[in-house]
TrEMBL record:
The Semialdehyde dehydrogenase NAD-binding domain, residue ranges: 4-105
Alphabetical list of SMART domains matching this protein: Semialdhyde_dh
Database matches in PANTHER family: N-ACETYL-GAMMA-GLUTAMYL-PHOSPHATE REDUCTASE, CHLOROPLASTIC-RELATED, N-ACETYL-GAMMA-GLUTAMYL-PHOSPHATE REDUCTASE, CHLOROPLASTIC-RELATED-RELATED
Localization of this protein: Cytoplasm
Keywords: Amino-acid biosynthesis, Arginine biosynthesis, Cytoplasm, NADP, Oxidoreductase
Function: Catalyzes the NADPH-dependent reduction of N-acetyl-5-glutamyl phosphate to yield N-acetyl-L-glutamate 5-semialdehyde.
Signal peptide limits: none
Catalytic activity: N-acetyl-L-glutamate 5-semialdehyde + phosphate + NADP(+) = N-acetyl-L-glutamyl 5-phosphate + NADPH + H(+)
Family: Belongs to the NAGSA dehydrogenase family. Type 2 subfamily.
Provenance organism: Paenibacillus pabuli
Protein name, as recorded: N-acetyl-gamma-glutamyl-phosphate reductase
Enzyme class of the recorded protein, top EC level: oxidoreductase
Residues the record marks as active site: 116
Protein's pathway: Amino-acid biosynthesis; L-arginine biosynthesis; N(2)-acetyl-L-ornithine from L-glutamate: step 3/4
Length: 313
């Protein structure tokens, strides 16, 4: 039996990337909406209730509207927006979060796709908090560098069509320390308060690296950077999409410089531990359009439909 799939937001950045992945998967059929009807509530409502599974690749407000239109209790929903990520009726679509998360996703009809920066942060920090090493009230900060496709069609167009000089250099944003991923970063990492988080967008299309600086002296237990690496490697050892690189992974650098784009066009996350006994930095690398958005959405679909988790990826 083929599963019928509808992508609401099929012409956006995340929607188009989803189509690329979906075209490689066999036992599904895609329901398309005419381009000129994509914002027509009646047409959308009909299709939303016909499909076995719908992806919402829409701004938050439009996602909420789509969810309110779905009255078919069998319809499975995967939402890429920020609207439901800490909603208790939804499951956070990060299978690697902890052992039981995959099963929660499989049993759920409502799954939210994690934010791209949040994915990098949570995967770095959660295992250390779960092991009781990093105090839950640790005064944590992090920064992330991302390609401009993370900002969707509008930001892509700005970068690709404008000649503004300031777009040529990296730009910090969310400097009011109110980035929209902070709630999920706090809740799913297990911290008692959100991190100080300063993202940076730069003049390249896709690829993201998030860095978390840590002082082992402030930990609950004395632990060396290589032991942190071992702990993370053990935590993710059975995960098909998470790779923890060996400690002292300078060999993975290009003459000392980090390559942010190495996970591009994959659903992979690479985790690095750098530093020495007094100062550590954990760096996570992913494709903001892969594991940071559409790749993660497909991974969740595969789990929810009982397909091979790597189908299409
Ligand atoms: N880009 C990324 O890396 C990531 C994006 N996301 C999230 O995914 C969602 C989509 O983002 P992205 O694809 O980048 O955004 P885009 O702006 O690239 O695309 C959004 C699409 O939704 C359509 N749309 C807007 N309002 C409605 C509506 N009321 N009804 C139907 N369609 C509508 C838009 O059509 P039109 O252009 O005609 O208005 C457009 O095609 C957002 O919530 C975003 O936060 C999540 C992770 C990463
Ligand atoms: C460059 C840029 O603007 N990036 C987006 C990240 C997109 C993303 O993953 O977040 P959502 O899933 O919540 O949309 C941002 O930081 O808001």
């Amino acid at each position: 039996m083929k599963h019928s799939i509808f992508v609401d937001g099929q012409e956006g950045t995340t929607g188009l990337k989803l189509y690329e992945y979906l075209s490689k998967i066999h036992n599904i059929e895609i329901i398309k909406i005419d381009s000129d009807k994509k914002k027509d509530p009646l047409v959308r409502k009909k299709i939303l209730n016909e499909a076995d599974l719908v992806f919402l690749c829409l701004p938050d407000e439009a996602s909420r509207e789509s969810v309110s239109m779905i009255n078919n209790k069998q319809t499975k929903i995967i939402d890429a927006s920020t609207a439901f990520r800490i909603d208790k009726e939804w499951i956070y679509g990060l299978p690697e979060l902890e052992k039981s998360q995959r099963e929660r996703i499989y049993n759920s009809k409502r799954v939210s796709v994690p934010g791209c920066h949040a994915t990098g942060f949570i995967l770095a920090i959660r295992p250390l908090i779960s092991a009781g090493i990093l105090p839950k009230n640790y005064p944590i900060s992090c920064f992330s560098i991302t390609g401009y496709s993370g900002g969707g069609k509008k930001l892509i167009s700005e970068y690709e069509n404008s000649h503004k000089e300031q777009l040529r250099s990296p730009r910090q944003y969310a400097l009011k320390l109110n980035h929209k991923h902070l709630p999920e970063m706090q809740v799913y990492s297990g911290l008692t308060s959100p991190p100080i988080f300063t993202p940076i967008v730069a003049n390249y299309h896709q690829g993201l690296a998030l860095s978390v600086p840590l002082y082992p002296k402030l930990f609950n237990k004395n632990i060396s950077p290589s032991e942190i690496q071992e702990l993370l490697a053990t935590y993710y050892k059975n995960e098909p999409f998470v790779r923890v690189l060996p400690y002292e992974s300078d060999v993975f650098l290009d003459e000392g410089y980090f390559n942010i784009m190495e996970c591009n066009k994959t659903n992979n996350v690479d985790i690095f531990v750098f530093g020495h006994k007094d100062q550590v930095v954990i760096v996570t690398r992913l494709d903001n359009l892969g594991k940071g958005a559409s790749g993660a959405a497909i991974q969740n679909m595969n789990i929810m439909l009982g397909l091979n988790e790597s189908s299409g990826l």
